[in-house]
Amino acid sequence: MKTTLVIGAGRFGKHLALELCKMGNEVMLVDRNEQLIDELAHRVTAAEIGDYTLYSNLQALGVEDYDYIFVCIGKFQESLVIVDHLRRLGAQKILAKASSSVHERFLKMAGADEIIYPERDSAFTTAVEYSNRNIYDFIKLNDESGIYEIDVPASWIGKSLVNLNVRKTHGVTVIASKSPDDKITAINSADYIFNPDEHIIIMGNKDNIRKLTKDK
Asked: Residue 215: what pLDDT?
């Protein structure tokens, strides 16, 4: 369980706070909008109303005690001010939402440890999923690589990892298999035999994945 502070109860901040709570974390949600906080207060660990561009208000939260602080403010200047205050107050880990590469650059200069692009990442994931009917799910790791759930390629059926030499031939790593009833099993043996009824979870460069899953 982690202690988290979510600053900003807009669409992204709201869903982030609720999901963090569902996963068993302690979540303090803060925003200057009284209506938003009133709506969400009973669904998170704690919630407060206030202007958190003010140093004194952030200081009163004891920000140095949180494992993670998420700055989910869309306004450019306000988010920079908050990140700068958090850094000066000794926050352990600051993750800030950015809307552009310029915004990202300034957030990092202000002291953000990591940058989140919720709209861009969501759009990218959706585009990947719907542009290739052989990809069922996708997790982006960076601009070049990800983890994908795909059909077993026809040429792999009945063969083993060691026979196919997957890493050398295709430049991907097979992580697990997923059965028709959605049970996921790690693939730890090079002798694993692929069957046509399963999906596989693989990690690799997007270009290699595209070649492997190209429509027939």
From this structure: 46
